[in-house]
Design a protein that fits this description.
ornithine decarboxylase activity; pyridoxal phosphate; alpha/beta; 8-stranded parallel β-sheet; TIM Barrel; lyase; 2 domains; Orn/DAP/Arg_de-COase; 8-stranded mixed β-sheet; elongated
Length: about 375
């Protein structure tokens, strides 16, 4: 739900056009919740979720570390007050010159998932720690991340051995159980595979020390999701089951779970129409769509809560679409969205839980529409 601070900001400022408003108080509460739920894990906020300077500065002040995917994200985290020791270059796909630049800035923690990436790091960042990302099935996630990043656990053995032989610090293993992961047991299987890698390499004289348990912690959209405390308890139980008394260092990389519920997008109804006279489904066009920041509606994976001034009255199913001249700019059609029958052209709507992956996914100026404006309060 939109916080009172967000409601008051919109009422007092009346910003024109679609905009995102983020409440920093919510982010601080989320950070504190993660630290209580997993007190022995270091938090590396996933900068890609929302890189607003105010968000990064708040988290840096709270003591967060940062998971970055590029040199600009590294520079943003450092500008916000994070030292290089608090930054991980977590993208497994990096140009060699970007690795060299990160190394020159002081970054010493790098993700890999193949021997070729290890060799780049060995050439230009020789005194670095590397962790190897392994594949997971992503079962239970709205956005599984099991194909593009990571390697089979058996291959990770070779990758980490290669890093060790090239003089790098074979530091650990990472995985990502999939974005918007609602299955509390998702971490259990991945931690079992990580423990296997730890044991196998220990027998070869290579001592791994860290497990990066990734992100995946969800935001509540239309359906309830488990509480952060429930994830913490399940993860701690799994760690004890697989590692016993030899607990590794652990890292988590919340992004959506840190900032998703802190943001609300204010949008406007541009048009309501039907495709034929007896069409039971209205088409509702907003002044924001997939290209304006709602890219995660692709395949209707993320269904955002939408509130209007007519809530409480009768509703009917609608196709919800954006304003651009692109037929792909339709958010919800396969499963129409119930909106109030009284909704009319010019009405404002609030699209809730949009603090993550909206400003960063918004196009620069497709069809001449301005990038999504953002206000951090």
């Amino acid at each position: 739900m939109a916080t009172q601070r967000i409601i008051d900001f919109l009422a007092q400022n009346r910003p024109e056009g679609p905009c995102l408003v983020v409440d920093l108080d919510v982010i601080q509460r989320n950070y504190e919740t993660f630290t209580r739920a997993l007190p022995d894990s270091r938090i590396f906020y996933a900068v890609k979720a929302n890189p607003a300077p105010e968000v990064l500065s708040l988290l840096a002040d709270l003591g967060s570390n940062f998971d970055t995917a590029s040199v600009p994200e590294i520079e943003m985290a450092m500008a916000a007050g994070a030292s290089a020791e608090r930054i991980s270059f977590g993208n497994t796909i990096k140009k060699e010159r970007d690795i060299a630049r990160a190394y020159a800035l002081g970054v010493r923690l790098f993700a890999v998932d193949c021997v070729e990436e290890v060799e780049k790091i060995a050439r230009v960042a020789p005194a670095s720690r590397v962790f190897c990302r392994i594949l997971t099935d992503g079962f239970g996630a709205e956005w599984p991340l099991s194909r593009k990043f990571g390697c089979a656990p058996t291959m990770a053995l070779d990758v980490l051995q290669h890093a060790h032989h090239l003089g790098l610090d074979a530091y650990g293993v990472s995985f990502h159980v999939g974005s918007q992961q609602c299955n509390l047991d998702a971490w259990n299987t991945a931690l079992g595979e990580a423990a296997m890698i730890f044991r196998t390499l220990a027998e070869k004289g290579i001592t791994l020390r860290m497990v990066n348990m990734g992100g995946g912690f969800p935001t509540r959209y239309l359906r309830d999701v488990p509480k952060t405390e429930a994830y913490g308890a399940a993860i701690v139980d799994a760690l004890h089951d697989h590692f016993g008394n030899h607990m590794p260092e652990t890292i988590i990389e919340p992004g959506r779970g840190m900032v998703g519920d802190a943001g609300v997008i204010k949008a406007e109804v541009v048009l309501i129409s039907r495709k034929h006279e007896d069409d039971p489904v209205r088409w509702v066009y907003l002044d924001i769509g997939k290209f304006g920041g709602l890219a995660e509606t692709m395949d209707e994976a993320i269904r955002y809560p939408i509130t209007t001034i007519h809530d409480g009255g009768a509703v009917a199913p609608c196709v919800l679409a954006g304003p651009t001249c692109d037929s792909a700019d339709v958010m919800y059609e396969k499963k129409p969205y119930d909106l109030p029958i009284a909704l009319t052209i010019g009405d404002e709507v609030l699209i809730e839980a949009t603090g993550a992956y909206t400003t960063t996914y918004a196009s620069v100026a497709f069809n001449g529409f301005s990038p999504l404006a953002a206000y951090i309060i």
